[in-house]
Amino acid sequence: MTFYRDQVQLLRDRLAESPLFITIVAGPRQVGKTTLVRQAIESQAHRFVSVDPSGEAPSARYADLSDTTSDIDGAPRDARWLIRCWQAARLACKQFKIDRPQESFTLVVDEIQKIRHWSDTVKGLWDADRAQGLDMHVILLGSSPLLIQKGLTESLAGRYELVRVSHWSFLEMHQAFDFTLNEYIYFGGYPGSARLIRDEARWRNYVLASLVQPSIDTDILQMTRVDKPALLKQLFTLGANYSGQILALGKVKGQLQDAGNETTLAGYLDLLGNAGLLTGLHKYHVGVARRRASAPKFNVLNTALMSSATPYTFAQAQADRSYWGRLVESAVGAHLCNTAASNEDVSYWRESPHEVDFVICDALRLTTIEVKSGATAGKLSGLEVFSKQHPKTKPLLIGAGGVDLTEFLSYPLAHWLEPA
């Protein structure tokens, strides 16, 4: 049975409207962006082209549309190629609208970030379509750090809507691949690797070679200036191994070869976060400036990145209570980060000897979260101390004596901000 993510219906709803904005579908590598866009347009007239010659082949729906892209399929992927593809889609759209004026037509361009100065070209083409009153939807796909940082806020400001596609949740992996809770905690939420988990060596090689390496070498290093690429890779490896732990960047330098200053490391951590790999949670403070100056708490954004970076097998990871506890906490942190809206924040809190695993908030609501992976809850002094300092907070225990982990992973961050 085919599995549809929520963004499929969102895209269908957008395509049922008159085209108001360019639709940008962005997210980490291998989370199913191309698949869900294809699902959204499968019953509608469209043109689908990929900037990557080795990627998705050009396609069109409806046999009465002539294949006007075949003559440019082998051309260099540059601005001229994009213009010709766009012009071919315009002709197909106009032809289609003669017979079916009430139905939508969509141009989809995959891997758009690989075209140099793509945003300037898209701006000119889109503005020309608006001037001519052309009723053609446009969907562009690409990786988050590239699309968000290169062009969207400059050339295309005010012309696009962003559809974020994040890592797969536990519910999605359970429904699509019958993952158990523990399998999700260890193997994470990459749909492409789901069928490999019975062969752990093969699964590990796939994650490292097909997900981690391309995310860094292609999605970051080829598209963003990084003066010390070896340092960025070391930072990712260190952060994945220390996921769930607080580590000041000053101390991180001592564990890295060719270490740069703390500003450089913080910048590289931002790049890794934008690529959907690794984030550094800040310490909760009321003042934004103090939050940014705090030591980061490393958290992988998909627990497969943590599991594949260590020698533990699935069975060994479950047997080591300390490591499994960090893996569970990392799964909770990843879930919060991946489901947070733009106005919601995820952080941690610590005032020695007291600590709270996660603090989530928006403009009005505040929830503190403690994660317990053992059979008993143990002491919860961190929640108690934080609640005394912030009386309006909602304390939340995940695990023994509190909300079941399966239930917690079944709802987005916003659900846990609601009053108790």
Topology (elements, then pairings):
Elements: H1 6-15, E1 22-27, H2 33-41, E2 45-50, E3 59-60, H3 79-99, E4 105-110, H4 118-132, E5 137-143, H5 144-152, E6 160-164, H6 170-177, H7 181-187, H8 200-217, H9 229-241, H10 249-253, H11 262-274, E7 278-281, H12 288-292, E8 297-300, H13 303-307, H14 314-319, H15 321-339, E9 345-351, E10 354-361, E11 366-372, H16 381-389, E12 394-399, H17 405-408
Parallel strand pairs: 1-5, 1-6, 2-4, 4-5, 11-12
Antiparallel strand pairs: 2-3, 7-8, 9-10, 10-11
Helix pairs in contact: 1-2, 3-4, 9-11
Report on the architecture of this protein.
- The chain is built from 17 helices and twelve strands.
- The chain has two domains: 159 residues, Rossmann fold (3-Layer(aba) Sandwich), CATH 3.40.50.300; 248 residues, no CATH class.
- The chain is an alpha/beta fold.
- The longest helix has 21 residues.
- Helix content is 42%, strand content 16%.
- It is globular, with a radius of gyration of 23 Å.
- The strands form three sheets. The protein has a six-stranded mixed beta sheet, with helices on both faces.
Structural class from helices and strands? alpha/beta
Tell me what portion of residues adopts beta-strand conformation. 15-25%
The overall pLDDT average reads: 89
What count of structural domains?
2
Rg (C-alpha, Å): 23 Å
Principal-axis shape equals globular
| Low confidence ranges | 63-71
Helical segment tally?
17
Main sheet summary? 6 strands, mixed
Tell me the span between the first and last alpha carbons. Answer: 37 Å
**Strand arrangement in the largest pleated sheet:** 3-2-4-5-1-6
Question: Would you report the number of β strands?
Answer: 12
* Helix content estimate: 40-55%
N-to-C series of helices and strands: HEHEEHEHEHEHHHHHHEHEHHHEEEHEH
